[in-house]
Amino acid sequence: MGMGSRLRALRKENGWTIEITAQKLKLGISTYAGYEEERRTPSVPVLIKLSQLFGVSTDYLLGLTKERDIKRLEYDVSLYLTKSGLHWDGVPLTEEELRPIRNVLKLIAERKSRHL
């Protein structure tokens, strides 16, 4: 599902027309419609506005994740550790280097869940 489809679905979930959505974003109707039709790409500031308006992450809008819940993305480390291109202070980490980190965190979570 592309960004345009996601934007259209989110708009319809809220019961908004293209006109109302454009007004809420302080954009022209044709500009917003262009995003839904994928004829235009929003700038980073507009992408942030879209994210805030619909209450989803920018990663969700960009199709980088299926997770819509911003809070879950902010706090669930397991979601971040599944992403590619992770680095530590600018130093890229390989899949091989990340595997033991994931395993240690998984083990800690399993132990903690047994004691809850």
Tally of individual helices: 8
N-to-C span = 38 Å
pLDDT < 50 stretches? none
Total domain units: 2
**Largest sheet, described in full?**
2 strands, antiparallel
Assess the beta-strand content as a share of residues. under 5%
CATH top level label of the largest domain: Mainly Alpha
The chain-level mean pLDDT equals 89
From the spread of the alpha carbons, the general shape counts as elongated
Main structural class: mainly alpha
CATH topology of the largest domain: 434 Repressor (Amino-terminal Domain)
CATH superfamily of the largest domain: lambda repressor-like DNA-binding domains
Total number of beta strands = 2
Radius of gyration: 18 Å
Protein name: Putative transcriptional regulator
InterPro entries: Cro/C1-type_HTH, Lambda_DNA-bd_dom_sf
GO molecular function: DNA binding
Domain HTH cro/C1-type: 7-61
Describe this structure in words.
- This protein has 116 residues and is mostly helical.
- The chain folds into two domains: 3-68, 434 Repressor (Amino-terminal Domain), CATH 1.10.260.40; 76-114, no CATH class.
- The protein has eight helices and two strands; from the N terminus they run αααααααββα.
- It has a two-stranded antiparallel sheet.
- Strand 1 (87-88) and strand 2 (91-92) form a beta hairpin.
- Helix 2 packs across helix 3 (29-36).
- The longest helix is centred in the last third of the chain and has 20 residues, at 95-114.
- The mean pLDDT is 89.
